[in-house]
Amino acid sequence: MRWLLVSAAVCAAPGVLLLLVHLVPEVQTAHPGLATAAAFAPFGVLAWAAALVFALLGARGRSRLIAAPLALGLTWHAAVLAPYFPGRTATAAGDSRVEVLALNLDGGRADLVQLADTVAGATPDLLVLTEVTRSNAAAFARKPWARAFPYRSGTAGSDAGTAAGADDVRGTMVLSRHPLTDLGHTTDTQASSIALRVALKGHPFTLVAAHPAGPDCGIACWLQESDALTRLALAHSSEPLLVAGDLNATREQLTLRVLSAKAGLHDSASGSGWQPTYPANSWLPPLLAVDHVLASRQFSTAGYRTVRVAGTDHLGVLASLVVS
Prior knowledge:
The protein has 324 residues and is α+β, with helices and mostly antiparallel strands. It contains nine helices and twelve strands. It has helices spanning 2-23, 32-38, 44-58, 67-78, 112-122, 134-140, 145-148, 219-234, 254-263, and strands spanning 96-104, 126-130, 151-154, 172-176, 180-185, 194-198, 205-210, 241-246, 266-267, 291-295, 299-307, 316-323. The chain is elongated, with a radius of gyration of 21 Å.
């Protein structure tokens, strides 16, 4: 039965690591691998559970006491999953409602016809689109897009295959049914993050359409991009604020935790169950929730779901928010 105890130790090791990077998020800055591992923190529960099963099967007599710390680790790690448990959503109660759909177009590859069908069914007020190309932008300036969303602001990158070496991910654009006013943007970042005033009748607010780089660009780059986005959000944190887009981070990673804490934001997905968005272009189901609509205290969630659009490696997120 020794092999069962060895298996328990092997399974417990990733559980310990994932719990560590969650409980002490500053550890993530030591190496890009640790920052990336933090994104998988919710899956640590599976490691603890497997370790506990192997320990119970392999232990005899007093050696069964080894199961106690494994059970404690499993219980402690289960708390990581708390934000993903289904909960109650808000009711409109006469307040204004705003619907936001955020989607990464994957270097312009997303099927805009299917996206138009999704928009027609969901009727969002705002589209927050990342990895927008010039061809995408030209399409959005024509009917029927221009009729549905008469207000547009943002940037566009080169079309897929024309940028040297890789897709051009710089383009970030907002399409809106309400008037928009430019308020600023990040500088010295790989992709654009832009701040806009949305003139929702009776409840104007600031929207930051965001696309910071992930830890695969290196720790210094990762932290710099996060800091640029956080400073842009903080400049408008005294008013109703949404930060939406492909944030290249799950709620367990340091950058998203710092942004949320400093700017006073909550994830509109909280209480809506497990809804990962990436990767969405393989036979495996999506594993990581990296696309978000973060909201200040003036907003509460009335509905939240993911949407699938062909051609992109992300699912979109559609948040229905009540403004008070």
